[in-house]
Amino acid sequence: MANDAKVERVLVATDFSENAQGAIDWAAEVARRHGARLELFHALQAPPLVVAPEIVPVPAEFYERDREHARRLLDEKASALRATGLSVDVSLRSGAASDAIVAEAARADVDLVVVGARGTTVLERLFLGSVAAHVVRDATCPVLAVPPGQAGAPRPIRRLLVPTDFSDDANRAVEAAVTILGPAAADKKVVLLHVWSVPRGVGLGWPASGIEPDLTGFVEGARRQLEEAARPLREAGFDVETKELEGEPAHTIDDEARAVDADLIAMGTHGRSGLKRLFFGSVAERVLPSAPCAVLTVRRSDESREEGAR
Q1: Do 137 and 298 form a contact (C-beta atoms < 8 A)?
Q2: Is the bond preceding 53 in cis, omega lying within 30 degrees of 0?
Q3: Domain count of the fold of the chain
Q4: Where does a domain end: 118, 150, 182?
Q5: Range of lowest pLDDT (162-171, 178-187, 189-198)
Q6: Domain that holds residue 304
Q7: CA dihedral defined by 301, 195, 136, 276, rounded to 10 degrees?
Q8: Same domain for 285 and 161?
Q9: Residue 248, CB half-sphere, CA atoms under 13 Å: how many?
Q10: What is the pLDDT of residues 106-117, one digit of tens each?
Q11: Do residues 125 and 236 both lie within one domain?
Q12: Its pTM surpasses 0.85
């Protein structure tokens, strides 16, 4: 997303929970900032079959009742948002939440998807966390995942944490954050973070157990690359701090977000499909469950094209 790109349409998914309200409030703030149209979306999942003692289909009227109830809740929330001056559409689709959200985002050609990152109860964490991870992985537009406790007006974005592996991902993430959340200002700071790790122990390859490699050159190289990445941000007016840390990437990113009191994490993500999806999860997906703040993810444009070609 280029710096001069416009945010014209924002999709926010809700399951009508308290945590989903935080996502709605963030989406409304972004839409208000850009004069964008807001689409309030709910995925209606088919009711489960009843087993007692054999499988019995749930009567159609139960499904229609759920649909009517969901539509009423959507309309109520849309009316409240329109009263604040926003242009709001409502959409109700059937299907698994993550698939329905991604499909609707593509159909409506939205510029941003906003979802709840996770719930507060064990079941909500499993369900909402899974939905958010799938949307981050599969959506071809930027995704803003909002953690619990964010209902109400979002706090200003003054401190932005940007994990980078020195690819174009970090640049895209910063560009998207600037486009969506506003340009540089005197009170805004970007923390550029590079996380690295060295496999240790016999059977894990180099270095062997008990052998400590000299990593001075590697660390110095990482610092040089961080400074190179920081240069255009500083030229754009941002106050930039660079950090290189050793550790497991996702945990280190979450810990650093807490340490610097980040208002937002902005990072690139790797979309995967097929067998790769079973064995690899992007760092962004692993950051979501424990992130202390909202996470903005940007999918690589080349990966988006490849996925669309499948």
Answers
A1: no
A2: yes
A3: 2
A4: 150
A5: 178-187
A6: 155-310
A7: 80
A8: yes
A9: 7
A10: 999 999 999 998
A11: no
A12: no
